Amino acid sequence: MRWSIPDSETGHDGEPGMKALTNRSLLAGCVITGLIALMALVSFLWTPYDVTKLVVADRTQAPSLVHWFGTDHFGRDIASMIMVGARNSIAVALVAVGIGMGIGVPLGLFAAARGGLLDEALMRLNDLVFAFPALLSAIMITATFGPGAVNAIIAIGIFNVPVFARVARAGALSVWPREFILAARAAGKGQALITVEHILPNIANQLLVQGTIQFALGILAEAGLSYLGLGAQPPMPSWGRMLFDAQTRMTIAPWMAMFPGMAIVITVLGLNLLGDGIADLLDPKSRRRR
Amino acid sequence: MRLLEIEKLSLSIGAVPVLKDVDLSVRQGEIVALVGESGSGKSMTALTVMQLLPHAARVSGRVLLDGSNLLEAGEEHMCTLRGDDIGMVFQEPMTALNPLKTIGEQVAEGIRWHTRSSRAEAEERALQILDRVGLPETKFPLSRFPHELSGGQRQRVVIAIACALKPRLLIADEPTTALDVVLQAQVLDLLRDLVAENRMGLLLISHDLAVVADMADRISILRNGQLVEDGETTHVLSAQTHPYTRQLAQASTHVPEIRATTTRNKPDNTQAPLLAVQNLTRDYPGRRISLFRRGASTRAVDDVSFSIAPGRSVALVGRSGCGKSTLARMVLALDKPTAGEIRFAGESLTGRSEADLKPARRNMQVVFQDPYGSFDPRQRVEKLVAEPLHLLEKKPSKAERHEMVASALAEVGLGPDALDKYPHEFSGGQRQRISIARAIITRPKLVVADEPVSALDVSIRAQILDLFADLNARLGIAYLFITHDLTVARAITDEVMVMEEGRIVERGPTHDVLDNPQSDAARELVAAAPDLSRALARRLREQG
Known about the structure:
By secondary structure, chain A is mainly α. In chain A, about 70% of the residues lie in helices and about 0% in strands. Chain A has a single domain (about 20-285), classed as MetI-like fold. The longest helix of chain A has about 35 residues, at about 80-115. By secondary structure, chain B is an alpha/beta fold. In chain B, a hairpin with a 2-residue loop joins β1 and β2 (about 15-25). The mean pLDDT of chain B is about 90.
């Protein structure tokens, strides 16, 4: 029984509308993520104002032509702070995802390939790490080793490990029983080679999508930690820190909360769109049609 | 008055035309077969009647059920018809049932919905119909879940759901394709009886002419969405006036020419066997009952011994679940036997390390059933076919590899333009050719083929069987052919082994075993196997 149209092998043709939509989400994701990244890069060379310079006379000014996003309670330009904060957020999330992938994926693949008691032990260990709420474990780490961007990265990274280990293991387990793996084994390939040649490419898009999601969560986690004062330390601007500063001045200077908040929302949205788009792009069935 | 009348039905999905001017009718108590190869639009015809087409579908023509046009009926009206006046049986019993609901709930669901009866009444009726389809309450209470039933039993549940309200029209879309021949015969008998009892009309969709020849009063043959021929079954199939009908009929009983012309040499006993299996046993541990206890283990393969001489083609036949595939995996050293020994070309395979197995693996390759699942979807054909080259002592250079893959593809009738494509760009038959190319690239002495043609259309199946026969004749490759289809066994093998519950119960030259089976298991298989010429002969006799 062929449930789609007769030429079912070509896949997606059934819903051309859906396809254009996912295409558009890739485009939107790329544009948004690109702009944020560009903003972070430009901040190395140029910002409208110096974010370390306090101009008390200009404090809590509403958005105007002079200060596009207004100024904070020390008279710093919020637009400049968001630009510099972006590079902090991106760096923290990127390295944290790198740590999570670098440790988690091999761990998950290894557990799936070996199976049995070893798999069980590794995954229960994973559960143990996973059982701690991410922020709690981050607070524990920063409380022990002191606050700072590096410790925040490590804390968020450790929280990412079990996520990637699980996704990798679950994906690998669904690929292992397939017939082409059996064919590879009949060709005398060992577990390691099969994992590299067949398993990893077949779960790569799941990992990549998870990666963009974790990247977005990393940015949120970094903002959360900075909000609690456990992330990047002043004078280094960070989006979470800016929200914290804005909290007590919500009624008199709402722009202080609005713009960093929007920066977080837009970045997370852009990354999620990007993840969706990538998942579609990496499907070889649709590749031919582009 | 006709129960179902389809007039000038045309259907397109998006820009793809699917059906063109199809006329079809079903009377009360009549079985009409709709036959065609995959992509011919059979299933789409069924879905049009049920009004379950995808959204992008455009339909024209008329579909009359008792004189009212279903194409103009609203969704609400269709909901009252589906399940009540029109029942449908799907192909895949594994996915047609909800795994989270008991069979009682699933059968009673439609009854409650359509008759607005109480739960107790509905369950009472569910019991009756389940009893009727051969699942009596004493053995199969309503509280069973689908996973607790076998494939054949599940298909009976699906039939019970479709027939619970005694629909006037039953549509069965390849109802037995996923079942082995013995179960197929049982399910077909059941359908025939239900039709006779309730004077239902049955629209039976199938790709198998042999099945249809035995069942249907009338037959319609569909090709590329157009009706090729229709009429009374025995007449259409015995006259075979249309070339396509003839082509289908011949393909379904196809015997490769090489095998038909050359007399097969008797097994040469002086030659050492290529493969020798001795007292092979495989136990699977039982399900864990508690932390410290396991259930009784199941014996999938039980004390099996046999041997295959070089260049011989041997069929391993049996019902599903009899241990055929487990045996094949052990022969391929992909699964470890619990006891016994496998010797390949004089060397024992049991207890060898992966490195020591390399020479044996080089001479022993595999072709799987599913031409869709046996390739990594993310690799190109060149890399896929080259995979067994990993077994060579000396790694071939890139140019050599390219050359070897191209020649292997040429061997199976594919051009070098296939090298850079992905597997999904090929049809099922082409994929099976690629699969064979992968199997022969190391020039093996034995190829184990696990139901290699059962997922293919009859005309494609004939081509692939030709290819197997050709490779056997030219390259002297021995085959272990696992199949439940006796026509395939007859077409391409010298010897047959019949397996039942893990044991080999009969073995001998193919024609002797299939024409004159000795064991009960073999007799059962032969009796249940659909056979076009036999079915036609019987029906012609009945008609006088």
